[in-house]
Amino acid sequence: MTETHATIPPGTPMFPPGRYGRRREPGRRRPVLTAILLVALVAVLTAISVRLYRQYGDPAYDTQLITYTDITDTQVVVDFRVNLPEGGSAVCLLRARDSAGAEVGREEVAVAAAAGQRQITVRHRLVTDARPFIGEVIRCRPPA
Fold first, then answer.
1. Number of folded domains that form the chain
2. Which regions in the chain score pLDDT beneath 70?
3. CB contact at 8 A, 91 and 85
4. Which of 64, 112, 108 is nearest to 88 (CA)?
5. What is the CA radius of gyration of the chain?
6. Residue at a domain's end among 57, 78, 98
7. C-alpha 143: how far from its chain's center?
8. Cα–Cα distance for residue pair 124/13, rounded to 1 Å
9. Is-above-0.90 flag for pTM?
10. Domain shared by 33 and 77, yes or no
């Protein structure tokens, strides 16, 4: 028996019998597998975010360069402010560069806040190999 237009729902394509093989049933959905993959993806992205935050985003050790002065052929004096956890300490990396941008001095400076103090202003004389053009605070981090 052949199909007639009366038995085919409207909008269904009509294919000649036997010409295109048999039609596949709609695919079976796998909601459990999709949910497991989604949870795994969220866990991986969370782990990456936490690691990057710990490495780069600790606002407790925020620094601000105030000024660099007393530039001579062998030094630059760097004034900077550090936000620390209350009564905490940090190690700050200072750098001096010449007018061409080459590094002429680098030093790590330990700073500590008094009890109840969250912000400390530091003045440090950075010794250089050549005449510096600028003094910088690269970063501050918790002491090792």
1. 2
2. 1-8, 13-18, 20-25, 57-58
3. no
4. 112
5. 33
6. 57
7. 21
8. 82
9. no
10. no
